[in-house]
Amino acid sequence: SAYGEPYAFSYSTRNKKKDGDDKILFSVSFTSLTPAMRESERKVWIKPQQVDDDTLVLLVVGTTRARFPSFETTFEKVVDSFTAVAAPESSLKKSTR
């Protein structure tokens, strides 16, 4: 962050059943600084999804801790609808960087 590193982290995990599969969801709370250098308590959900052997995609949704309850239903819909798939194979050479 341009205004300092987030601090005061706490997290929990929850398992959700979706389409017969267990899905994990991380709930993370932390404090960050605003551009005016005021503390802002934040809450985010992180949904990881393995796409192939070497790719993990993370969906992150969140807002301030105070606003989170009013967005929770929307975030639930976003998280439940999130799907990541591998990109089609390409004949382009991979970068060696």
What can you see in these coordinates?
By secondary structure, the protein is mainly beta. 14% of the residues lie in helices and 51% in strands. The chain has one helix spanning 68-81, and strands at residues 7-18, 21-33, 39-52, 55-64. A four-stranded antiparallel sheet has the order 1-2-3-4, covered by helices on one side. The longest helix is centred in the last third of the chain and has 14 residues, at 68-81.
Stretches where pLDDT is under 50 for at least 5 consecutive residues are none
Cα-atom radius of gyration: 17 Å
What structural class do helix, strand and pairing data support? mainly beta
Major pleated sheet: 4 strands, antiparallel
End-to-end Cα distance? 26 Å
Percent of residues in helical segments? 10-25%
On the 0-100 scale, what is the average pLDDT? 88
Tally the helices: 1
How does the overall form come out from the CA principal axes? extended
Strands, count: 4
As a percent range, the share of strand residues is over 45%
Which strand order do you get reading across the main beta sheet? 1-2-3-4
Name the helix and strand elements from N-terminus to C-terminus, one letter apiece.
Answer: EEEEH
Quick overview:
This protein is mostly beta strands.
Distinctive features:
single chain; 97 residues; mainly beta; four-stranded antiparallel beta sheet; 4 strands; extended
